[in-house]
Design a protein that fits this description.
- The complex is a heterotrimer of chains A (about 325), B (about 325) and C (about 300).
- Helix content of chain A is about 30%, strand content about 25%.
- In chain A, the strands form two sheets. Chain A has an eight-stranded mixed β-sheet with strand order 7-8-9-3-10-11-13-12, sandwiched between helices. In chain A, strands 1, 2, 4, 5 and 6 form a five-stranded antiparallel β-sheet that branches.
- Chain A starts with a strand and ends in a 12-residue tail after the last strand.
- In chain B, strand 11 and strand 12 form a beta hairpin.
- The mean pLDDT of chain B is about 90.
- Chain B has one domain: P-loop containing nucleotide triphosphate hydrolases (Rossmann fold, 3-Layer(aba) Sandwich).
- By secondary structure, chain B is of the alpha/beta class.
- In chain B, helix 4 packs across helix 5 and helix 5 runs parallel beside helix 6.
- In chain B, about 30% of the residues lie in helices and about 25% in strands.
- Chain C has a single domain, classed as MetI-like fold.
- Chain C has 13 helices and no strands.
- The longest helix of chain C has about 35 residues.
- Classes of the chains: A alpha/beta (about 325), B alpha/beta (about 325), C mainly alpha (about 300).
- At the B-C interface, helix 3, helix 4, helix 5 and helix 6 of B face helix 1, helix 9 and helix 10 of C.
Chain lengths: ~325, ~325, ~300
């Protein structure tokens, strides 16, 4: 049985100008220790997917529904607020992009760490403090014991993100969700943090949902990748398969317009047009207006998920084999 | 493209900011830019790269005299901009423009797009009367914006559209040099490619010279002819594009390049990463000698003694490191 | 990527589109969409109308004493009743509006014409000028407004003009401070740096860009100033320091009504209701203006409904 089963997840927001279908039929499974990448640009629904899994979306105006949303045998849609609170951080943890906004600026780091430990693991003050120091050491914060009394603003961006990771991993969760966790960091710091997360999650056997717009990060860390567009997963599969044999117009478009630091002279083929309007229900492929490789069938029927190879699916009518490189 | 007479020459540029200190004892200044020198040939693109706090944006502002440098010279075709007062600078501003990272914020939110462009033409008395609509239309065509956007307000524009308008406005004064300060960092990848292509297309068509400031090395490799790598206010390595990306000499440049993710699982998962230790030192109190030595994997005792001079490796390739 | 404006029809449309909807028109449209503000606007307009047309609308002379008709309750002859001197309450209300509105208007104009330039200059130029100006403003701010007004009136005699002067003087530093703060914020905005880079002169930047973008807090403060002035005038008149009898004034009438609360409650209710209506209307309009002046609320009318939305 998979650790996390998501079938047909839909998260819609009611606004005064219409219903925004931020997530519109997302399905995937996550196994123990697996690293799943969710790739997409702004408006693709990747962050909302993560928030929906943890039921962190405010309902109303949001409305989360799914055919199945089960974590470790627990139905997350039916769970009571107390159950959900007990799950968050303890069993499913999330690290956000901007640690300055996730950390309370008026509480010390130590207080925020121990608060989590005491609530979820029932530790007393002294044991919690000792464990907090161990956690800070684990994430590579020098002079950990002294840093317990420091405030978030006294840390650099990379340090703060390490603290967030420490808090997230403090109760040994089964799933760690990283939502653009390194986007705001400098590239050398980003490398440090990714390295840290890789190492710790492998040691602890934690499954990871890595959300990013950066194809390179996903290529380096993830086992499986889901490409999202307009609230749906348009292509999914093992990371090597998807990168070497992209089978959706959007995946192909993304790869063609991403500059690479190791290649020179390759033209950037931009994806023309603008992101789609999430308020319109989807009858045809949402990427059609911007797609360079569309075929006749695209204008008449929504493409079903087609198997490209074992475990690799794409919702695309077109045959993109000519675009595959080796 | 006359290499012998560069359009812009920057000599030992320094921009220091007074620091917040105690009541009667001012603290040490923030040395955001601390001795930067380079030149850019006409029609070329210099990529200025580095991480946060390295001073690349401040260098761009200093070149344009939007922040007056503490010392140093900025020569635009021989004329030293640092010696001119703001009144004398104003007509020269037609020759050098800037595009910002947050494009929507660079547009007055209370003015429709048409007014924003027209105002620029008014300031410099360009294309008056009947010429005006034609000129505006040509400018819009250059950046690929449809006419009906003229009546829109900045908040009604998408990120990419706003950046096109900002570029359009900069082009309206017919500049020769444009400082692009992280012009695509805030945009989605698909839109980034649109804007990068636009910038390159316009450069070819109008013979523009760019200083392209970015932390994104992949984009910099795509657009630059020359690259200068900055760390804590100094240029640590400067070379033509190929040398930087295939034969980087400075340990910081090497670490930077190894940290950039590559969208190819085969390559990415097999890579040897140079992981730097520690955080960026504070710009108010940089390490003595070579500023990079506290995080450098090959630092030795001598690195703390004095700032490394720029060593010339070959024509067009300079490194500031004693270990090279 | 170039778009071509080919046919003559499109060309005409292009040139026509050079006339844009001004920001003020869009703001006005936003304002009337806000129900509370629209209601406030209507009430305010009515009050102004009453004040202007008082001589035509008032059924009786507000200062005419008629002891035979004193303390009559509201009825056919006297719509809102009479006071202890037999004067028609309605007429006094209408004429009283004149005083309140006039005081409000003068105080606002005074505060605006002095406070805004001070704030703009201090905020934009900074440095020593900023320091000097703000310390001067601070000096005035230390006086509790009402007490300063009382002091001035005590020195120069109880007179509506002195009251207005006092209230105006006291509002200047508040407005200056707000404008300065707003200017400081706007000055750091990217679009101001962009204008400098484009070669705009400081004068152009201040008058065309800084001023308009500091407008919103100014407008909100103006409405606060206005209603504060109206209330202050009423308070001072209540204390006997403002409008002198027999001139009608809402505050003055409130003071007189105290003695007759039990017997003639309408004497108290009428000016109170008038004051409340005036102040509430001004506040609603102020709130509405603050929202309407935010350019993010402006929606231009799309000429071709969405057809070209996907282009670029």
């Amino acid at each position: 049985m998979s650790l996390l089963e998501v079938v047909n997840l839909r998260t819609h927001f009611a606004t005064d100008r219409g219903t925004v279908r931020a997530v519109d039929g997302v399905s995937f499974t996550l196994d123990d220790g697996e690293v799943l990448g969710l790739v997409g640009e702004s408006g693709s629904g990747k962050s909302v997917t993560a928030l929906s899994i943890m039921r962190l979306v405010r309902e109303p105006p949001g409305r989360i529904s799914a055919d199945r949303l089960v974590f470790d045998g627990i139905d997350l849609l039916q769970a009571q607020p107390q159950e959900l609170r007990a799950l968050r951080t303890a069993r499913i943890a999330i690290v956000f992009q901007d640690p300055m906004r996730s950390l309370n600026p008026v509480l010390t780091i130590g207080r925020q760490l121990t608060e989590t430990l005491r609530r979820h693991q029932g530790l007393d003050a002294k044991p919690a403090a000792r464990r907090a120091v161990k956690l800070l050491e684990m994430v590579g914060i020098p002079s950990a014991a002294k840093r317990l009394t420091a405030y978030p603003h006294q840390f650099s961006g990379g340090m703060r993100q390490r603290v967030m990771i420490a808090i997230a991993l403090s109760c040994n969760p089964r799933i760690l969700i990283a939502d653009e966790a390194t986007t705001a960091l400098d590239v050398t710091i980003q490398a440090q943090i990714v390295d840290l997360v890789k190492r710790l999650t492998r040691e602890m056997g934690t499954a990871v949902i890595w959300i990013s717009h950066d194809l390179g990060l996903v290529a380096g860390f993830c086992d499986v990748v889901n490409v999202m567009y307009a609230g749906r997963i348009v292509e999914a599969g093992p990371v090597r398969d998807v990168f070497q044999r992209p089978s959706h117009g959007y995946t192909l478009g993304l790869m063609s317009c991403t500059p690479r630091v190791d290649l020179v002279g390759q033209p950037l083929t931009p994806i023309e047009g603008l992101p789609p309007n999430l308020m319109e229900p989807i009858r045809l492929c949402p990427f059609l207006p911007r797609c360079r490789v569309s075929v006749g069938a695209c204008a008449s029927v929504l493409p079903p998920a087609r198997a490209i190879s074992p475990g690799h699916f794409a919702s695309c009518h077109a045959d993109l084999r000519a675009h595959w490189r080796g | 493209m006359n290499r012998a007479a560069p359009l812009l020459v920057v000599e030992d540029l320094r921009v220091h900011f007074p620091a917040a200190g105690r009541l009667f004892r001012p603290g040490p200044p923030v040395r955001a830019v601390d001795g930067v020198s380079f030149s850019v040939g006409r029609g070329r693109t210099l990529g200025l790269v580095g991480e946060s706090g390295c001073g690349k944006s401040t260098t761009g502002y200093g070149v344009l005299q939007l922040i007056r440098p503490t010392s140093g010279r900025v020569l635009l075709e021989g004329a030293d901009l640092t010696t001119l007062d703001s009144k004398a600078l104003r007509p020269l501003r037609r020759r050098m423009q800037i595009i910002f990272q947050d494009s929507a914020a660079s547009l007055d939110p209370r003015m429709p797009v048409g007014d924003l462009i027209a105002e620029v033409l008014d300031i410099h008395g360009l294309h008056k009367g009947r010429e005006r609509p034609k000129r505006v239309r040509r400018l819009l065509d250059l950046v690929g914006i449809a006419a009906h956007f003229l009546e829109r307000y900045p908040h009604e524009l998408s990120g990419g559209q706003a950046q096109r308008i900002a570029i359009c406005r900069a082009l309206a004064v017919e500049p020769e040099l444009i400082v692009c300060d992280e012009p695509v960092s805030a945009l989605d990848v698909s839109i980034q490619a649109q804007i990068v292509n636009l910038l390159q297309g316009v450069q070819r068509e109008l013979g523009l010279t760019y200083i392209f400031i970015s932390h994104d090395l992949s984009v910099v490799r795509h657009v630059s002819d020359e690259v200068a790598v900055m760390y804590l206010g100094k240029i640590v390595e400067r070379a033509d594009r190929e040398s930087i990306f295939t034969a980087a000499a400075h340990p910081y440049t090497k670490a930077l390049l190894s940290a950039v993710p590559i969208p190819d699982p085969e390559i990415e998962q097999a890579r040897e990463r140079i992981i730097l230790s520690g955080d960026l030192p504070s710009p108010t109190d940089p390490p003595s000698g070579c500023r990079f030595r506290t995080r450098c994997p090959i630092a030795i005792a001598a690195c703390a003694a004095a700032e490394p001079p720029a060593k010339v490796l070959n024509a067009d390739h300079e490194v500031a490191c004693i270990r090279v | 990527m170039a778009t071509s404006v080919g046919t003559r029809a499109e060309e005409g449309e292009f040139l026509a589109s050079q006339r844009y909807e001004g920001g003020m028109r869009l703001a006005a449209r936003q304002l009337v969409r806000n129900r509370a503000a629209a209601t406030g606007l209507v009430c305010l307009a009515l009050i102004c109308l009453c004040a202007l047309l008082a001589p035509l609308l008032a059924p009786y002379d507000p200062v005419q004493i008629n002891l035979s008709a004193k303390l009559r309750p509201p009825g056919d002859e006297y719509l809102l009743g009479t006071d202890h001197f037999g004067r028609d309450v309605l007429s006094r209300l209408l004429y009283g509006a004149r005083v309140s509105l006039l005081v409000g208007l003068i105080v606002v104009t005074f505060a605006l014409s002095i406070g805004v330039p001070i704030g703009l200059i201090a905020g934009f130029l900074g440095g020593t000028i900023d320091n000097v100006l703000m310390r001067a403003m601070d000096a005035f701010l230390t006086f509790p407004p009402l007490l300063l007004a009382v002091a001035i009136v005590g020195l120069m005699g109880p007179d509506i003009e002195n009251v207005t002067l006092a209230l105006g003087v006291v509002q200047v530093p508040v407005l200056a401070r707000i404008v300065r703060g707003s200017t400081l914020a706007v000055r750091e905005e990217t679009y101001i740096t962009a204008m400098r880079a484009l070669g705009a002169s400081p004068l152009r930047i201040v008058t065309r860009h800084v001023l308009r973008n500091t407008l919103s807090p100014i407008v909100v403060q103006i409405t606060i100033v206005f209603s504060a002035a109206v209330i202050a005038e009423a308070s001072l008149s209540f204390l006997g320091l403002g409008t002198q009898p027999p001139q009608p004034s809402w505050g003055r009438d409130l003071a007189d009504a105290r003695r007759y609360m039990a017997d003639a409650p309408w004497l108290f209710l009428a000016p109170t209701a008038a004051l409340m209506l005036a102040v509430l209307s001004i506040n609603f309009v102020g709130d509405g203006l603050r929202d309407a002046l935010d350019p993010r609320a402006w929606r231009t009318r799309r000429r071709r409904a969405g057809r070209n939305e996907r282009a670029v």
